[in-house]
Amino acid sequence: MIVRISANSTSVKPVPHGLRALTGETSYWNNHKYSQGAQIFRNGEVPEYIYQIREGAVRSYKLLSDGRRQIGAFHLPGDIFGVEMESVHRFTAEAIVDTTVWIATRHRLFEDVDERELADTRNIVELLHNSLEHAQNHLLLLGRQEAHEKVACFLLEMDRRLKKPPVVVLPLSRTDIADYLGLRIETVSRSLSAFRHRGIISFNGHRGHREVILKDRTKLAEVALSKYRYRDWMHPCRQHCSG
Amino acid sequence: MIVRISANSTSVKPVPHGLRALTGETSYWNNHKYSQGAQIFRNGEVPEYIYQIREGAVRSYKLLSDGRRQIGAFHLPGDIFGVEMESVHRFTAEAIVDTTVWIATRHRLFEDVDERELADTRNIVELLHNSLEHAQNHLLLLGRQEAHEKVACFLLEMDRRLKKPPVVVLPLSRTDIADYLGLRIETVSRSLSAFRHRGIISFNGHRGHREVILKDRTKLAEVALSKYRYRDWMHPCRQHCSG
DNA sequence: CGACTCCTTGACAGCGTTCAACAGTAGTGG
DNA sequence: CCACTACTGTTGAACGCTGTCAAGGAGTCG
Known about the structure:
Two copies of one chain form a homodimer. By secondary structure, chain A is an alpha+beta fold. Helices cover 36% and strands 21% of the residues of chain A.
């Protein structure tokens, strides 16, 4: 289960687009693959690298002492993560599926920052800003939205970040979704079922129910924006069973 | 109620410590006072200034369409806020009590950034980092902690940020606390009462119950770290009523 | 004193959790 | 192919933590 960085990562040099702006055209690059469930770095560890996902998906999370988990972000292809301003990582990162990442040595970013151009530093700032914005949006979702709203927001976020594909292929288990939304897996499942029964989404059948077709993005957005209440969705026997 | 920046802000030049590092020793400074409830800036507005609190307290929050509010952060004396990397503010900031702030014109930070030293840019990065760290810690609290744990965390945070005074004088109403923690005011009140009945905290009596004495920080930290469950605190008739 | 606001407390309801059982899928080996 | 196992996801029933609604207390200001 525990697969740390090993020495056999073949070093090729297709310098990725996103990280190049941060680290320059140097040969500090490595290519590495993590198998499903492998830890990329752990909370409390000293940051040595920054990462950009080439293929796959990664979750960053924190744990409470009793094992409860809060996922802070999902990282999808193209995403950069592992950027830390302090001496330790504030999240643990794990590959959700088999994942290939580009790895850059971290000291190029910060220890040598004085020698680099200000434009690059601005990229760091923008990066931080994006993370911060996402975190703050997530605060609102976690603290103030109801279960079915959270699930709708999640689907729309995945749809947007995956460029609105015909079928949203979730690389996530229900447990991952639940920890992202601050819910239980049963609640996520119930909300998804309610959406399906309403014709808002449908499942592709294969690979568990992880392939979702958003059949009515408009209505999904309405759910996300609190236009419907719990009892209108989860209790089927109000005024809908007759129709 | 709506008190925007007016022209009569007397300009004095006791250049504040924190912002000086960001903006330099220039005369871009102003001093301004906001009365209780006044809006400093609103969500969606174009950022024109950055602020450092001289005295008072400020809340930054977002609203859902139906009026539900999520406070992202409280700003206390010395805190810098209003720093935005994008074109609009992502929060609304209001003075919780009568508040005096230092104001710096924002363009010195970003439009002229090329002329400035890299060390200053680092400060921006550190600033962003602090906000991001706080937001991410708050995600965990909002998504995965129970009501009494949230309230305990809140008290400890205020205690820490106020430098562990003998009496924690909260500049916040119960509504503010509740919106910060993703709870209702009644739940906050019930948790505080439970702490009081257990002898963990006590109130100073005056000024509503906004002056809190932390009589047992150790036990409060245990509550915050999920060492006790709801039923052990909120149901008085288990094994404690006899004693 | 009355009016107002903030806070507390109680009773009840409800949303989400918990516990449990079941279904669907994948992998293994016969 | 099926049997068996393990894992993931769904669904039902009951519970419980928190929200909702309501009343009352306490401080403030007129």
